[in-house]
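Milestone 3.1: sequence recovery, worked example.
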């Protein structure tokens, strides 16, 4: 794979990472009203201020240049192109699954999201990583913050511009963008967002966001490469890839 920018395209034997063209970018970055801090945040401060209370964006907490570089080298497709990956439908509950080779996924599934395509009709690679990816994931430096009596599980993925997962919630964790930008929308557990669980985040952005963007309960921020977001337990969140994106999440389970 040759580094030329920030999206994926696979030919007969190689994949290239190219800059997302303006005409392929179906959504734009938005404002940020989530607290943004830096790597000077201590473990004690994390537990006191954020771990159980609110999300936070952290810059410079880790140095993942090695891991980041490996997600753009030819070894990624050459080493994993044959691997069968499991795609999940991009609706709230991700019920449907589809198996495909990593190379075929890069070749046929990284186009821009169509506004007319529903989430349950959209499949992309996130969350279901088999053991063949373990050697790569072991090189990722996890965020240096712990939740007592919780263990971490990593989830790696990549997707085209305009894709994402609509509102859902689960346990706490961190997410980091390696390449591209990802826009996050969040609501606290006590506020249920108005959305179609089989729609896409792009459809919600186009149709519902203009009505709700001034809601004081709505938090949002766009993350760039190397920035980490922490989401507390049971916080609603939806994601939207502004560019073709490579990302990794650290899920925390008791």
């Amino acid at each position: 794979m040759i580094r030329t920018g920030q999206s994926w395209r696979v030919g007969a034997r190689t994949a290239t990472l190219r800059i997302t063209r303006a005409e392929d970018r179906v959504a734009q970055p938005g404002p940020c009203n989530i607290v943004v801090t830096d790597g000077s945040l201590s473990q004690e401060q994390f537990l006191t201020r954020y771990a159980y209370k609110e999300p936070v964006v952290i810059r410079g907490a880790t140095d993942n240049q090695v891991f980041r570089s490996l997600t753009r080298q030819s070894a990624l497709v050459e080493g994993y192109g044959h691997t069968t990956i499991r795609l999940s439908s991009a609706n709230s509950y991700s019920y449907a699954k589809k198996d495909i080779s990593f190379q075929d996924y890069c070749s046929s599934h990284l186009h821009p999201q169509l506004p007319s395509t529903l989430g349950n009709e959209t499949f992309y690679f996130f969350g279901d990583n088999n053991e063949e990816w373990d050697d790569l994931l072991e090189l990722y430096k996890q965020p240096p913050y712990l939740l007592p009596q919780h263990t971490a599980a990593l989830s790696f993925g990549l997707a085209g511009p305009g894709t994402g997962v609509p509102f859902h919630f689960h346990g706490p964790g961190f997410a980091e963008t390696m390449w591209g930008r990802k826009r996050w929308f969040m609501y606290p557990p006590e506020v249920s967002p108005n959305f179609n669980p089989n729609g896409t985040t792009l459809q919600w952005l186009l149709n519902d966001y203009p009505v709700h963007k001034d809601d004081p309960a709505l938090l949002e921020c766009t993350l760039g490469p190397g920035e980490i977001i922490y989401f507390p337990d049971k916080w609603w969140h939806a994601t939207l890839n502004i560019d073709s994106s490579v990302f990794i999440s650290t899920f925390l389970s008791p």
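The first strand starts at residue 2 and ends at 4. The radius of gyration is 17 Å.
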